Amino acid sequence: MGQVWFVGAGPGAADLITVRGARLLGEAGAVLYAGSLVSRSVLEWTREGCEIADSAGMHLREITTWLTTRAARHASVVRLQTGDPTLYGALAEMARPLERAGVTIGIVPGVSSAMAAAAAAGETLTLPEVTQTVILTRLAGRTPMPVRETLVSLAAHHCSLCIFLSIARIDDVVTALRTAGWSSAAPIVVVEKATWPGAERVLRGSLEDIAARCASAGLRRQAMILASPALGARHREEAEVSRLYDLHFSHGFRPAGDPSADDS
Fold it and tell me: Where is the Tetrapyrrole methylase domain (predicted)?
């Protein structure tokens, strides 16, 4: 049996796949990609003659059967998933039947849409003395959320939230954040199809108006919701700065500077 690689395609742009992921696509005899979420542009890394199929219309057993039969024919097979395979990718349930069939599994990380959305919007998700924690989560859908992980309970930390798979229920997201004590003026950024060529859109608003803005723009799927007290930090002159680069802070690679020097 050959090896099946679960490769993160990244957020959309073909050149945001990792070097390793691109190499494996070029070596693969067969590739099964998640066509409902992965941009076809990423398939440009495959070689001529590679067997390519779209899993958008497949259920789990069909996916694992396809991968198993191709692993019997090819030394290397790629399951190409959106973003990073370890986030919302059904990795464990796909890997189990493959391993039972004697197929070796490999995993290649990818750039998550959470990071791509923050980059597209020009935002940072952490800010000294404001928030140093990022929570990746979603609303309950067909797959329920654990009771201890409701959006209200997570939002109560008032740290950065990257909310996946929830744009169609933006009203429920707003209600959860309000219930958790977020201000109506809290900034919210929504990024649709981050890094997709010609399709990326960045929408800014506040908790007060973001639902109406999304409805007006027709944002209904494949959009990341960012809620964070760090949003807009680039435009805050009074924002706290990292001690790591402070003139008076020493570490193993740099001694502290002259306390009398101007570090403005």
Answer: 4-210
